[in-house]
Amino acid sequence: MRANFLVGMLALSPALCGAAELNGNGLSVLWGIPFAGLLLSIALCPLLTPAFWHHHFGKLTAAWSLAFLLPCAYFFGASTAVHGAVHAFVAEFFPFLILITSLFVVAGGICVRGNLHGTPALNTGLLAIGTVLASFMGTTGAAMLLIRPLIRANDNRKHAAHIVIFFIFLVANAGGALTPLGDPPLFLGFLKGVDFFWTVKHLFAPTIFLCVALLIIFYLLDSHYYHKREEVKPPELDPTPDSAIRFEGKINFVLLGIIVVMVLLSGFWKPGVSYVLFGNTLELQNLLRDGALIAVIFLSLAVTPKGARSGNEFSWGPIQEVGKLFAGIFITIIPVIAMLRAGEAGAFSSIVRAVTDGSGQPINAMYFWATGILSSFLDNAPTYLVFFNTAGGDAQILMTTMAATLAAISAGAVFMGANSYIGNAPNMMVKAIAEERGIKMPSFFGYMAWSCAILIPLFVLMTFIFFT
């Protein structure tokens, strides 16, 4: 059977190498149904049918993927369908998953022991540290590293939900805006050709504005709660008395540095060596980067003390969910990207017109809000890809003559992922950990009341300052 499979693949290889990409000009909007269906499933099923989703999200994702691939193979040929799937996996999904997994494993091997006293100044400092770390170890990594120490520091307080809410605003979202390591949308842009340091150059001012404003608001609010009577329990009732902070699994800081170096190297070193796999070009620097990151994963698992991972309650569940869901996203988004690239000639011409003025110039404020609103309720990574391609999809043009547009798309995707629990993957993870530790978190709409009251006014100000 294995021999027959290899013969079949060899026979199909010439066809795949010469297969045409899906042309978006003649595609109906109906081809976008699998993508929309998958995103709606991700957004609604965990809320409406959590048990079903927990046990069957992989099957549901596979069903939506086949809902595109099978009709594509029927109407446009098997070679077109397979070529699109192979390109999605080789060029985008595998590098994306390898980076996310490496950051997840390395961050999960660093355990912060001990406890501090959760004063407004200390809490603000911890949020600031997590915000900075998010751009270097990812929003998920920074959130998982610091959420438990932050909760322990405040487990002697009556009001702690607001601390977790601002943690989601800052560490799980806004802090990841400065590098491709910070948030999945930016790494997808990096894979599309956006320079590593482009984000820090063009998003530094909006990020500083938002993060400093949120830290000031948090300090004032936390001070208000902290100085209320009966807010802080007596020392003898503190569940976790203060003790010195120490790190377990410190070797992972070195491995985190290796991840940063390898991603940087793949962006700067261009040896001009490439290989072709089923019509897809694989560059040597990217292959070496991904190979090194896989090695880092296994090295971290081998050298990290078991106590560090058990202290973090490390499990493979979150990364398995991300892997399965994004495999489906990268498949079902194929026709959507093709239609967006067709511009006015495509089925999504109305979207193109909505973010473009009468002279054909992009309306950056519309890109910021359109990307942001969708990122609030759908995953921000595919939303970024949608508007990246709506703006033309050419990284060199977007980084230069359309830099303000790409900045608006990037900021909308990263910042507004904080508007709801489902806007960015770490949001729900942080909420679940807080509730496990006895913190009564707001409901889905209760959380949105907080985000609308605090974040939306800041986003309106940012629109006039940075995106008009």
What does this 3D model show about the protein?
With 468 residues, the chain is mainly α. It contains 19 helices and 4 strands. The model is unreliable at 1-16 (pLDDT under 50). It is globular. Helix 1 (2-17) packs across helix 4 (78-108) and helix 12 (317-341) runs parallel beside helix 15 (380-390). The protein has helices spanning 2-17, 33-48, 50-76, 78-108, 120-153, 161-170, 184-191, 198-226, 251-268, 284-303, 306-311, 317-341, 349-354, 364-377, 380-390, 395-399, 403-415, 425-436, 444-466; strands at 111-115, 243-248, 274-277, 280-283. The longest helix is centred in the N-terminal third of the chain and has 34 residues, at 120-153. Strands 1-2 form a two-stranded antiparallel ribbon. The chain has a two-stranded antiparallel sheet with strand order 3-4. The termini are far apart.
Largest sheet, strands/sense/barrel: 2 strands, antiparallel
Radius of gyration over C-alpha positions, nearest whole angstrom: 23 Å
Task: Give the structural class.
Answer: mainly alpha
Shape: globular
Q: How many strand segments?
A: 4
State the order of secondary-structure elements, H for helix, E for strand: HHHHEHHHHEHEEHHHHHHHHHH
Average pLDDT score: 85
State the separation between the terminal residues, measured CA to CA: 61 Å
What is this structure, in a nutshell?
By secondary structure, this protein is mainly alpha-helical. It has 19 helices and four strands.
Any chance you could write out the topology, listing elements then pairs?
Elements: H1 2-17, H2 33-48, H3 50-76, H4 78-108, E1 111-115, H5 120-153, H6 161-170, H7 184-191, H8 198-226, E2 243-248, H9 251-268, E3 274-277, E4 280-283, H10 284-303, H11 306-311, H12 317-341, H13 349-354, H14 364-377, H15 380-390, H16 395-399, H17 403-415, H18 425-436, H19 444-466
Antiparallel strand pairs: 1-2, 3-4
Helix pairs in contact: 1-4, 2-3, 2-12, 3-4, 3-12, 4-5, 4-7, 4-9, 4-10, 4-12, 5-6, 5-8, 5-18, 6-8, 6-18, 7-15, 8-17, 8-19, 9-10, 12-15, 14-15, 14-17, 15-17
